[in-house]
Fold each of these.
Amino acid sequence: MNHIRNFSIIAHIDHGKSTLADRLIQITGVVDARNFQDQILDNMDIERERGITIKSQAIALPYRAADGRDYTLNLIDTPGHVDFTYEVSRSLASCEGVLLLVDAAQGVQAQTLANLYLALENDLAIIPVINKIDLPSADIERVKEQIDAELGLDPETAILCSAKEGTGIEEILEAVVRQIPPPVGDPEAPLAALIFDAKYDAFRGTVIHCRLFAGTLKAGDVIRFHYNDATYRVEEVGRFRLQREKADALRAGEVGYIIAGVKTVSDVRTGDTITHESRPCAAPLPGFKEIKPVVFASIYPIASDDYEDLAVSLEKYKLNDGSFVYEKDSSAALGQGFRCGFLGLLHLDVVQERLEREYDLSIILSVPSVRYHFILKDGASAWVDNPMHYPDPVSVVKSEEPYIRAAMMLPDRYLGAVMKLCMEKRGVNSQMNYLSPGRVELTYEMPLSDVIYDFYDRFKSVTQGYGSFDYDLIDYRESNLVLLDILVNGEKVDALSQIVHRDRARARGVQACDRLKDEIPRQMFKIAIQGAIGGEIVSRSTISAFRKDVTAKCYGGDITRKRKLLEKQKKGKKRMKMIGNVSIPQSAFLAVLKSDTD
Amino acid sequence: MNTENLPGLYLHIPFCRSKCAYCGFYSRTDISRIPDFLKGLRAEMALYRKAFPRFDTVYLGGGTPSVLETPHLEAVLDTVRRHFVIADGAEITVEINPGDLTAEALRTLRALGVNRLTLGCQSFDDAVLAFLGRRHTAGQGRDAILAARAAGFDHLGLDLIYGLPAPGGDPGATFRGWLTTLRTALSFQPEHLSCYQLTLEADTPLAATLALSPLSLPDDDLSARYFLTTSERLEAAGYRHYEVSNFARDDDHRARHNRKYWDHTPYLGLGPAAHSFDGARRWWNPRDLDAWVGALREGVRPIAGEETLTRDQQRLEALFLGLRTREGIDIRAFRRRYGLDLRAERGNEIGQLAAAGLVRSDGGRVSPTRRGLACADFLARFLS
Ligand SMILES: Nc1nc2c(ncn2[C@@H]2O[C@H](COP(=O)(O)OP(=O)(O)OP(=O)(O)O)[C@@H](O)[C@H]2O)c(=O)[nH]1
Ligand code: SF4
Ligand SMILES: [Mg+2]
């Protein structure tokens, strides 16, 4: 086991984790030049298109170190965006150390700190790496000062690196071998394997990703899930190369996969412990902290016939996204669906897109909401994350909404603009702290609902991309809430309702009507859109009927062309939800949350 | 007429004296290649005479058939008759551009059996013609009409274009200009009118010009106003708006050849870029004179692509083509031919369209109203 090193690369978003992983993969020769592509571990389409990592990805690298010995380096590339922190924390549970990357031009950012804390909580060895030193704007000295002052690490141990140009790579590999301890654990002891991820494979059933803390596991063994005592016979074990690579056995300290013909998807839970049926371990492994979703929305199939399909797909999807939670739900306007919890709006966006791509579903998402708290006249307390369950206003004694502490780091030249934005978002109790000349840390307490309402995009735009942002839920505070309903041609569309602060209600109503006017295409009759609070109409807009929609000429070759277009549009039609006799595009439901500024 | 269901013959003459700014048709200006083309056309006819022996409509389009010298036109029509049987009473149409043909040439055409002319007048406003890059003037347009009448043509169609960008930033003036052109056209009492809304074709000089200029084509509301007003004016003048862009003085003067495209009657298209249909299969020639000539030199049919329509595809086409005509779709005939009972399967949708005033559904048909024709593409999407 002395030849194994388990480590993750962690950093703020875009600081170059996946690019560094590329270099490590290349130098250890796991992929030949022909099959190589940039950010090779970002293998989901959605990751490649957006240029960000969404899923942690493990890969085993063979490495002969300067000491002449051969090592297996189990690398995990992690995502940097706040919404995927849960991925990072699960990855860290199977590591003894991390490479903490800091962009030489951007310096320490909010997620650098957040991820450092995660590593410290897990008692991991930390190797600071200053990346992108090739950039003309790189300021290594300043970053070293930040590593010292803001991270509390020894700046002299920081490795200088350009993942892009491949400098510092050998040095990093040597540091991994020397500074990160090998895993401990007895291969002869009873099996204890931690499930940290899983993926459904149509042919093999569930593929379980795990870290062995004790024992040895091979094909033919009978395993038991601690959570529900389900047992399975192992068909195959192996390690992660670029593809899965079958192995004779997995031993304590190793990271790998198990295929055991698990077709009952719900048997597999991330954080659960797997042991041998015949010789179980004494106690389960600690598992993961329960994750609390902060944003909620309902998912409905566009065609109600697809409900069962959606149910099965969500179950499979959840295997591969431990931070996603859901339960049954139904809407008067949209029928049967599921109420889902997400870690943020990007997470929500990603879930929607992955469901559509990986499971070929057409779905509608209702307007996202946070979770509110109400104290009712009869003394009862109600938690409401779904505007459809908004309590009768006359029965409410007190309403509360969640607050967060937003931690922002930015060059001080943007201070004015950011403060203005935070005030607009009902931010209070600001604190400011100069980290170094020209660089400030700013904290605000803000209602979460205002943060999910287009805060992140606007923050990025006012800081021109130089600001970073992180937040923690702090508490619930009293608030004056109302329910804003949207009516389309006089019919209430419950999936478009929002719970909002009374002071904002009118403005939100106006904005929602405007946005819907842009999103809903003209149809054969006039459409009236109204925002209403209680019975009172607070905003309205009108979409006039379309009047001209025909191509002038249709002879010989035009006919084929026209038919092909129609065939294509027929598919697009499926992405519209009929509400009454109005077809509303999928995009309209999320658009309601965006303001006109973007 | 018992000849109603014979196939139609289309000949694509791929030459123009110069290219108009908006044109997306396949045509070229090097008229020195006409002899090559004529030779190819003869060869192509020979390759299809067995498969398509008889026609009851012949249509010379392009391009501009009228760039051909009279002897060439004579030769083309003569070759047609030598290769194929042209039914008695067949409709024989030639597209003419104003300024191209002399009175004498027109008389020859008449003598050759051509019984229908369509004149590409496009507008009776010189500024509009210049904007479109047409080489003739409004005056030449008028002269061409008079010359055609003088040559004895009693079935005359005029092609017109509307919906231009407003150069002075005054769409109202452009709109009024169009009504003036319409009035002028009506003063000649043509038997047929085709009024096309200007569409931007990719890779045309007009598309390039508009991309760089603040000018833009009319929006949805203004387009609708053009469409509906044109329809109202022409119907008030006694014309029947029988297809999205086509008007006939009476039912007998509807374009018989074009109708074949709309009701899945077979047609044979010869010449570069021409399309053909045999009832199930559709194929098309290369949009390239050289490729077309080359294939024919080797004695093979110059086919660039083809498709065989599935029943679903035939049904979809029949639906959108039918909904482009004022007659609309005969529900029983549609069910018999395409296996879909619109009343049973789309009754609810048809009801909605009728309630919105876009179709009428009585007497066993679904027929677009005038407003329905203006959004025929939508009707097809909605009912498909
Ligand atoms: N100049 C320069 N650019 C780099 C270097 N390393 C990464 N980049 C660029 O930085 C951008 C982000 O790189 P990634 O490797 O995707 O960053 P990441 O940390 O994996 O990002 P997330 O996974 O989304 O958190 C890409 O455009 C890279 O090409 C470097 O050493 N120098
Ligand atoms: S005359 Fe007709 S075919 Fe020739 S360029 Fe003009 S519009 Fe096109
Ligand atoms: Mg990445």
Note: The two ends of chain B are 32 Å apart (CA to CA).
Amino acid sequence: MNAAPVESLPAPPENGLSFVAEIGNLLHAAEGNPINTCIQCGTCSATCPVASGGFMDHSPRRIIALIRAGFKDQVLRANTFWYCASCFQCTVRCPRGIDIAELMYGLKRYTVWKAQHQEGLIGPVFSETFVKMILRSGRSYEPVLATTYLFTYGLPEIIQEAQTATALMLKGRLPLLPARIKRLDNFKRMIRRIIPLGDSE
Amino acid sequence: MKTYAYFPGCSLEKMAHSYHLSALETTRALGVELRELEDWNCCGATAYFHVDELLAYTLSARNIAMAEKEHLNLVAPCSGCFKNLFFTRSHLKHDPDLAEHINVALAEDNLQFTGSATVQHLIEVFVQDVGLAEIKARVTNPLQGLRVAPYYGCQILRPRKDHEDVEQPRFFEDLVAACGAVPVSYPLRLTCCGGALIITNRVAALSLVRNLLESAVRERATVIVTACPLCQVNLECYQKQVNREFGTDLNVPVMYFTQLVGLALGIPPKRLGIGSELVAVMPAIADAQKTEPAPVGT
Ligand code: SF4
Ligand code: SF4
């Protein structure tokens, strides 16, 4: 874990760092072994429910191979890490002790900072909405998340989601008003110590 | 009475309110007090780690520090919250510089992280702290003949590598058996339900849900029991969508382990929040107990 402020995190490639070194830096404080210890055995891909279901354009093993071979563009354009469900199956099974799930988080952060993610993915928008919401109220609130859908999904999905939401609402399982924590001012000051927010509203 | 600081997490406020109710009812019946953390904040959920690790640690650390202030250990019923809180504590304990940095921020709310409070998942309080023998001794309504698929999901167990249970856990099956029910052997009990993907990749998530439901049906389970609100909502509330997407006809009730334990302890279903499901639990349970009187083994 890197305790440095956000703006000093990973160096842009212009300063001469190779892509594989950048990714190495991204994970240098993680507990797992570096990705150059990967033996390409494929255990991670075989154990990954999302890759096995055919939903990732590159499997976790392949992402590691692409990083090591320096295929930066392919890696950053991949959907692999956005479709990672954070189930940690790969991490606990990797024979080389590589924390692949953490690599997936690292790649998400890297692409969000560099704003280089694949067009049309919902993950980045969702992360952003979620963060803004928590910074405003200290709590998360499902109906706000639903608006992420409105902008990113097609009509049939929205209708299906609305039907699920209505069913839950009838059972008293959706809140009508978002919750807020009580010491919100302290909370916001606390956040400002960690990230310079400008104005957190 | 043993007391814990209780971190319900955002989904227990409404979406998983029945988990909240049944957690409070059953722990009380077992002589445990869950004292809700005053003014807890969102743990950051998974989405936070995408954007800013440091901020995510700060959010979790605030909750842990509030438990420390009360001199209580912290308990979370949601596997996602549990994982965030658990790892924040262990990272901060192993990295004093990080802890110092975060403590500067926590000072804005007159809080400090020292690492004195432990972090547990609610199910650990049941199986480790209260103990299965104690639970069994208090069962007044053994759920005989009820075939239960115990669904562990991901983050109770993973990625804790030092935890012996990562590959072959038994505690959920044992808990089900302590309630007098029959734990079926559930091959996908450790496989992800895709809860984190339901918004970001709906079809992938629905297909993982489908696999889990079909596996439970194959094992002739009457209900799936979970220990996480995200898993419960994903498995239960998206069944209609699964059926529409894949042309299946799945209708499997999914309940919380606290509801199962509560029923076995003789607590009325209503007080366990049973009745707010989209796939009704009680008729299925009544049917199962009628048709399968006290079978032996699975
Ligand atoms: S399981 Fe580990 S060693 Fe095997 S391919 Fe995946 S990352 Fe490499
Ligand atoms: S953590 Fe992500 S990459 Fe690893 S097995 Fe799970 S879904 Fe696949």
Note: The radius of gyration of chain B is 19 Å.
